[in-house]
Amino acid sequence: WERPDGRPIRQRLLVVANRLPVSAVRRGEDCWSLEISAGGLVSALLGVKEFEARWIGWAGVNVPDEVGQRALTRALAEKRCIPVFLDEEIVHQYYNGYCNNILWPLFHYLGLPQEDRLATTRSFQSQFTAYQKANQMFADVVNKHYEEGDVVWCHDYHLMFLPKCLKDYNSKMKVGWFLHTPFPSSEIHRTLPSRSELLRAVLAADLVGFHTYDYARHFVSACTRILGLEGTPEGVEDQGRLTRVAAFPIGIDSERFIRALEVPKVQEHIKELKERFSGRKVMLGVDRLDMIKGIPQKILAFEKFLEENPYWRDKVVLLQIAVPTRTDVPEYQKLTSQVHEIVGRINGRFGTLTAVPIHHLDRSLDFHALCALYAVTDVALVTSLRDGMNLVSYEFVACQDSKRGVLILSEFAGAAQSLGAGAILVNPWNITEVASAIGQALNMPAEEREKRHRHNFEHVTTHTAQQWAEFFVSELNDTVIEAQQRIRK
Ligand code: ADQ
């Protein structure tokens, strides 16, 4: 990997995800303004110096006209992004339908949609067809931009068909696929009508990655039980071809969070928050408003805690920041009303003229405001019913080096496997258990908090997003080299 003059050539990495890491707003017929959204994946890949990353994905907007498409493509090219244009019907069937209505709940153990069995079965087929079609559209764009030697890294449940589509184009393409959600037990996966097609399509990849060893094991079991293939310690074997399957737990750009605490604006925020909540312990929840995050269960556990511990009623406040997502979906609207209703009831029950026990915000916070909140928090409550990893727990730990706050963490979040020794682990369905964990966290002696925090801080700062990305891509390169050697033998 060197040029003739000895300068290293950086390997090109094509990162393919449903959404590009930008928000695009149309300002005129051929004019777009773009803003990069600094999510975990973006920070992870910006930090990886040996690859030159390009992004391929949907820009999140419908652009029916060619003038608009050409202008957006040009604008995105400056950000090293390449768009896949999906029309409204495809987005409806593939993204809202198959991805979010079928795969997302199933992978989080919430089952397949129940409403009307027959209608679901009929629409299931058309949604699955749209899913395959959309994946093929992503593959077409990848194939158009692919150059020999590139690494193609496909992300998440939206693109399970992509490895197959890519290998059909070019069997020599280096293809990795990583799942950000849990992969459920094979008993859950086998209820999916398209269970075999999806597994086979993923197996076309050279390397398949998950956040935890358990998810990798579930995937291998699904392949052995449903497809009758052979599972090996390395992965899954089909007629002599091995697909490597392994765990690659994601991390965060911890330095970015630690550095943010020094920013004057953040320091100012911290000061304001401390004054605002002086004399009270601060508990914090930060989630997308999604069924899987267990927000109603968390708030009910807090209510139980207040019910049983009158001493704490005016000495603790819960700040729940919930970013609304998928607001057009009735189930999500129902969840929002349910949360509002519970919060209203608890504030009515335990509030006073001057203070309420729960501050619930239906909104997203900017990065600096979020860091300040993490920094003043005494107890963070991450009680997802299921969660691939959960990065909020990592971000909280990164911002807690002066406070040594306590993390209450669901045992069903992937993060429980990495932060389990430092956090108080709970079953989020057991409200009594969560309520008693709140009591334990609030009363925890400083020494124990210190010990637990050190453990987690060490983990969060040594298992970063950059390392995760480097590790996955170097494993993918090695896997392909080993496979070639095996074939030569
Ligand atoms: P998510 O389900 O989105 O990600 P998570 O890992 O917690 O869950 O990441 C959420 C991100 O959004 C965090 O960076 C957090 O700071 C931010 N965020 C959440 N609520 C916010 C708010 N109110 N205001 C501002 N920012 C907010 C999916 C999987 C996870 C997996 C990740 C990464 O569902 O399990 O950890 O991908 O693989």
TrEMBL record:
Keyword Transferase among UniProt keywords: yes
Enzyme Commission number, as recorded: 2.4.1.15
Keywords attached to this entry: Glycosyltransferase, Transferase
Keyword DNA-binding annotated: no
Family: In the N-terminal section; belongs to the glycosyltransferase 20 family.
Name assigned to this protein: alpha,alpha-trehalose-phosphate synthase (UDP-forming)
Residues of the full protein shown: 75 to 563 of 921
